Amino acid sequence: MSVATLPWWAAVPVAVLLVIGGLITLVGTLGLLRLKTFYQRIHGPAIAISLGAGCILVASMVYFTAAQSRLVVHELLIGAFLLMTAPVVAMLLMRAALYRDLRARRAAGLDDNGGDCGERESTPGLSDEGIPLGQPAAGQLHAEADEQRADAAGGGGR
């Protein structure tokens, strides 16, 4: 059975599910590009994998069930595997990044609460160089971090 001979009751849901799945995956990709820190970036793909791939898998089930005139459930196994592994992988990536950041903070002389072990004053949520935690490029100051330090020092112009 070709796409041209697929019944309309199967073609319409397949098309709608494929478009919805593609849009959800696109939104997850845009979230990956747009968000600033690693901890924010991890949520977009984790949601997109679950919802976007789920819509695409259901569309595949409907298409092959109509095309072969029998129930096709291979996609259920793929969907179950994705639903079980995607949150676990996201959690493990976040824990690894948190561990990396905590090690970097301890090496820089900061305590676990964001305070400095020495005499310098630090801003919670920022590393020793003033970089928001979770940024991969250590040592590069961003405009946002500079503004936060200026506000903390009273130079915000208010």
From TrEMBL:
This is Cation:proton antiporter. The keyword Transmembrane applies. The chain crosses the membrane at residues 6-33, 45-64, 76-98. The keyword Membrane applies. It comes from the Bacteria. Keywords: Membrane, Transmembrane, Transmembrane helix. Pfam families: PhaG_MnhG_YufB.
